[in-house]
User: Fold these one by one.
Assistant:
Number 1:
Amino acid sequence: MAKTGDLAAIIAGCKKGKAECFSALLDSYAGRCYGYFYRLTGNRDLSDELLSELFVKLVEKIGSYKGGSFESWLFKIASNIFNDHLRVKQRRSKALEVRTREAKSESDRVERLGSEKMDRLQVQLGRLDVATRELIMLRFYSQLSLKEIAAIRSEPIGTTLSKLHRGLKKLRAMME
C-alpha cells in the first residue's frame, strides 16, 4: 500500500494516463481487492474476473476521484461491481438461490467428510446472507472503518454498526 503522499502522486499520474502509475496502483491494491472478491465468492476464477473488471473501471473512472479516502472510493467501486455481478447472475437463473443451496450442500459435505481443505470460517461465512458477508469482509478483511463502510453502503453509521454487530453475533453462534 502506498503512503499518502506517494498515493496522491500516483493518482495524479493515473489521471494523466501514465501506465506506470496504474501499475503502481495495481501492485498496491490487487491483493486486498482479490481477497475481498474471493471471500465474497469463494471462487478463484470469478474473483480474477471481478478484479479485472475493477481495474478496468479504475482506469475509466480515475478522473472522477475527487480526494478523500482512496480506499473507500476503490472499495465502493468494488462493492458496486460485486453487486452488479449478483444482479446479472440473479436475472439469468436466480443463481443466488442455487448458490445458497450449493454453499449449504458443500459446507454440509465438508463437515461430514471432515475435509481440511476448506477452513471452517469460510464455510460459515458462506452460510451468511450476502449482505452480511460483504459487511464483515469490508470491515475485517478490507480493513475499512465503520464510517467508510457506512458511506459505501449509503446508510447511517449506527445502522452499519448494528448490522455488523448482528452479523458477527450470528457468525459466532455458527462457529460454536
Number 2:
Amino acid sequence: MKLERLVSIIYKLLNHEVLSASMLAEEFQVSQRTIYRDIDVICAAGFPVVSYQGTKGGYGMMDGYKMDKSLLGSYDVNSLITVLRSLSTVFEDERAQGTIERLQTIGPEHRTTSLSVDLETRRTEPDALRHLRSAITRRNIVRFDYINVKNERTTRDMEPLRLHFKYRNWYVYGFCRTRRDYREFRLSRMLNLFLTQETFEPHHEVPEEAALSNKRWQDQLEDVVIRVWPEALAEVMDQFHQADKQFHDDGSMTLRIPVYQPLQARWLWTILLSFGSGAEVLEPPALRRIVKEQLQNALKLYADV
C-alpha cells in the first residue's frame, strides 16, 4: 500500500545518510518515477528531504533532523524486536519484518539477546492463524467445524475480530452468526477452517481483554486441593505453577488451586488423570469421586489385558 511505503521510506531516510532512487525502487518493487512522486509527497508533508547529486547521490534527511536514538533505550528496542520476530515467524508477516529492520537501525550495533519468545504454534493447524489474521484484516466471514467442551461437533459461521494467545493456546474472538452472539473459540478445536468471499461491516466494538472475562466466575470459584508425591512435582508444577504451594518434610507438596466449577471442568479431570499415582485429589470430595469413576471407566477398556 502507498501509505505503508511512504512510512517505510521516511524511516529509511531517517536512519541512512543517502539512499538512491534506484535502491528504493528495487526494494519496494516500484518504478523510479513512483519513488520521485513519493519523495514529493514526503516533502509536502513537511519532512526536510535533501537531494544529493552525483554518482553516489540520492536522498537523505536534513542534518539535525535524524531520529533521536535516545528516545528508545537498547532494552526497549531489543525487547520489541524479540516479540515482533516471534510474531512475524508465526504469521509470516512481511510488515512486521519491515518494522524489525527499522528498529534494528536505532538499536545498538552490538547487542546480546536476553529474551526469547516461543509462541508454541505446533499444536495449532499450520495455516489457521494466518488465515484468521487475513480474515480479520479483510473482514471475511469464516466457516469452520468446532468441537465444544461437551464433545459436540457443530458448524459455525463467524465474523472474526481478534486473536488471543493465553494459557499457552490461541483463541479467536468474534461474532458467531450461528449463535447470534459473541463467542471465543480455541483454535486447537477448530476443523476445516474456510475463508468465505462474504465480508462484514466494521460495526463491532471489540471489548478490552478484561471485559472478555466473565465477572460471574469470581463467585463460582472453588478451591481444589491435591497432594503431590515427589516423583510428580515437576510435572504438576508445570501445569499449576501459579497455585498456592506447601511443601512437606517427606518431599511431597500440597497445592490449592481456585477453579471455576471444578465438577464440570473436564479439562481439569484430564490433567489430574495424567498425573497417575503421582497426585491425589483431597478436596472437594465430589471431585475425588469423579476422578475415581474416570479411572474405573478407563480400567474397563483394558479388562482383557
Number 3:
Amino acid sequence: MNDNIWILAIANSVTLATTLMFGSLGALFTERAGVLNLGVEGVLLSSAISSFLAADASGSVWVGLAVGAIVGALLTCIHAGLAVILRANQIVSGLALVIFGTGLANFLGKPAEGKDVVTKLKPITFGPLTDIPILGPVLFKHDIITYLAIALAIGASWYLFRSRPGLELRATGDDPATVDAQGLSVANIRIRYTVFGGLLMGLGGSWLMLAQSAAWHQSATTNGIGWIALALVVFAGWRPMRLIFGAVLFGFTLQLPFTLQAEQIDAISADYTKMLPYVATLVALVALSRPSRVNALGAPRALGTPFVRDER
C-alpha cells in the first residue's frame, strides 16, 4: 500500500469538499429560514458557466467568481419569489429551478463546450509548512476559496447559535408565527436568506469551474454535486460545523474510485464505490420528503411550509 496515495486522497477530499461546503451552506441558510430549495444543482451549473465566460472574457478569476456568485443569487430570487411571495409548492419550484438552471447553462455553454479553462485559481504557498509530513499536503496546499469555505462554516455556526440575527433566523424556520408576533417580517427574512444562500451556491459553482475543471462540459462539470450538497445538510443535522466533516467525507467517497484504481485494488468494483455518495443522497432526499422523519432528523419545524399571517 502506498501511503502517499492515501495522503493525496485525503488532501483531494478537502479540495472536493469546497463546492460541497458552499452548496450545503447555501441550502442550510435557506432551510433554516423555512424555505426548501431543491434547485442547488441548477444554480451550480448556471454559476459555473457564467463564471467561466466572465473569467475568459475579462482574464480575471476574481471577476469570474463574482459573476458566478451574483448569478446564483439572481436565480434564487426566482425561487424566493415563487416560494415566499406567491407561496408556490417549494418542491416543484426547486425542481423547476434545476430544469431552468440546467437549460440556461446548456444555452450559454454551447459555444464554449470543451473549451479549456485558462484563468484558474492557484493554491496558496505556505513555504515550509507544505513539507510537513501528512499535515502539509492535507492542510497547506489549497487555494484561498477553500479556506474561505471552512471559515464560513465556522462563522455560520457562531452566527446561528450565538447571535440575535441567528436566533431570528432559526425562529423563522421553527416558528414563524412567533417571529411575526414580535413585529418581524417573516417574508423579508426568508427572501433575504434564500438569496444569500443562492450567492453561496453560486460561489461554489464558480470555484468548481475555475479551480477544478480543465474545460467546460455541462454533463461532467457538477456531476450531481448539487444533490449531494442537499443530502449533506440532512447528514449534518442542519448544523454548520458538522458540514465540514460531512463535506470531507463525501469528498472522499467521490474520489475513492480513483484511489482504489491507483492502488490496483479490485476487490471492490469501481462501479459500486462510485455509487456510494449518490445512494446516500437518495436516502437523505427520501427522508427529506417525509415530514415526520424531517423533524426527527433535526430540521426546522416549518421547513417547506408557506407562512400566512393569522393562520396559526
Number 4:
Amino acid sequence: MNFVLGFRGSVNRWECDENDHLNVRFYNRMVWESLHSALPALGVDGDWRLHSVHQRYLAEARLATPIAGYCALVAADAEGVTVLVELRNPMRETVLASFVCVLHGARAASQAALQLPKHAGARGIVDGAPSLEDVPLSALAAHGPVQVGSGVFRPEECAADGVVPFYAYMGRISDAMPNLWARLQTEEEMAARSEGFQGGAVLEYRMAFHGMLRAGGAFEVWSGVRHVAEKTQQFEHLLYDSASGACIVSAQAIAVVLDLGTRRSVVIPESRRARMQALQIH
C-alpha cells in the first residue's frame, strides 16, 4: 500500500482517561487530522463526509507514546472512497490502531481496489450488523437501551463551519460510559475501579453516521448490550438529535474488562452478566 504521512504527535496526560491510556476521542481526532492532511497527497478531493468508520484497537497508547498517522487509498467508486488510516508508534514500528474510513462525496484521481491487511479487517463486528438506528428516540426504551448521556455540543467542539466533527461524537459517547458502567458493575467492581485496580478497554468499534449536528445542537446518548461472552462484551451506542428524535450516530463496540496492574483482560463475573442481561437489546 502507498501510505502518506498525515499526522505526527504524541499522547498528552490530559488525553489519557481513567484507564491511563489514550482515550478513544483523541484516537479519532488524530484520524481526522490525518485524513485532512493526507487526502490531497492521495489524489482525493471533493466535499466529502464520513459515512462510516471501522476501528480496531491493537495496542495501548500510554503517556508520551509517539504517534504517527498514515493514510492509504483502499477503494474508489462513484459513491466515494475508502481510506485506511493507521496510527503507529514510529519508534517501535507497530500499529496501535487501524481505521477503515468510508468517505461519501470524495473523488479519487485513480481507481483503487486493494486488500486490507489482516489487522485492519473486521473481527467481531461486520458491516450490516443489527442496529436500532431506524428506531425513533421516542420508542427506543422499549427495545432495551437506557439513556446514559445528554447535553449540547459547544462551539469549541465543532469545526470552523459549526459542524460537529466525528471525533466529537465519539468523545461524547465516551463521556457517557461511566453511567453505563454504574448500571452494570457490582459494588466490588466499582470499588476496584475507583481504587485504580480495574478498568476497561475497547477492542473494536464501528460507527455509522446518519445525520449532522451543529454547535448548539442538543443530543442524547443511549446504550444497550448486544452480547456477552467469557471475556468480551458487545454494546450498541446511539446518539440522537434531541429536537428531531432522529439517530445521528449508531455504533457497535466490543470491549473487555482490564486489570490495570497486569494490563490484561479478565473474566466477566457472573453477577455482572445478570446485570447485563437486563439491558439486553431486543
